[in-house]
Each structure stands twice: as structure tokens, then as C-alpha cells.
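Subject — a protein and its fold
Fields — amino acid sequence, C-alpha cells
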Amino acid sequence: MPAEQTAAIMAGGEGIAAKANPADKAAWLAGAMERLDARLDEATRRRVRQGCACCLGGKRLETSRAIARDHATLDERLAAANEARFVFGHSVTRLDDGQIEVCFFPEGLEQHRCPCLPHAAEPLSLTYCECCAGHLRHHLGTALGCRVDGQVVASALASGGREGCLFRFTVCGHLG
């Protein structure tokens, strides 16, 4: 991405310090996502935001690697991932079409809250939540021993708390 495009998207970010007011951070991020959405196509936005994934190492990575090491089949690995709530949230399910759905919240909740940006006053673009898709892509791919591609379907942040965070992934290779 050209430097001037990056600078336009990140405008004002230099004033947001790590210890800044959480509501101010959320407001700046909302504006940055609007600028990102306006300047980049969907595939590029998804790639950029998924590249911002956090929590890729440590205990989560150990758990994902153990799933791949200790379970041979896709069904066994998915069952183990479904039990690894710390890494994958509420549930990991293979859908009839072969896609894998990851849900961070149980069904039936009246309100959902984003753990990554809890002080957002207004809904943010779904683009922001692609970083969580990147987190899941990394760990699900590790647990399954193959590359997966996916995206955000719904999120607490984008829906103003009306929906839970939901992601869908496609397996793009053979189990390792």
C-alpha cells in the first residue's frame, strides 16, 4: 500500500497513546476503519486487518499445536478445537457445506460485548473485526495442520451488541 494511503488511513493515530482514554481509542479506530473502507477493496482490507491479528503465540499456540499433534483426523481436531474455549471461543463446528464456523458467544444472549474494543460508543465497520478472523485463521490452521481462509460473518462490535462474533473458514489443503 502506498505510504500516502497509509498516512491518510492512520491520520490522527499518532495522538492515540497506549494509555489514552479507551473511548478516544475506539472513536479513532472507528474513523480509521471508515477511511480504510473508503480507500481499499474488500480483499485488501481483509488482508490488512487479518495481518493485525494478536495473541498468535503463547498458550494459544501451544494448544493449537497440541490439537494437531494429538489428533489424526479432521473430525478429531475439530472436536478438540471445540473444547479449546481459550483459543476458539464458544464453538467450532463443521457445516454441511464443509466450511468451519467459529462462534465466540453462545446463542440466546440478549447483548454481546466486544472484548477487544469494549468502549466503542457506536458500531464499527466489520472490517475492524477481521483482525479476530486473522487470529482464528492462524490458530485453526495450526490446529488442523493446513491452511484455512475465512472472514467475519457477524460481530458484537459491528452490530452494536445485537449479534455475537461469528466467523466462517474454508479448509485450503490437506491435513498435516
Q: What stands out?
A: The helical segments are 3-9, 22-39, 42-50, 58-70, 74-83, 85-88, 130-144. Residues 75 and 94 are 8 Å apart (CA to CA). DSSP finds seven helices and four strands in the chain.
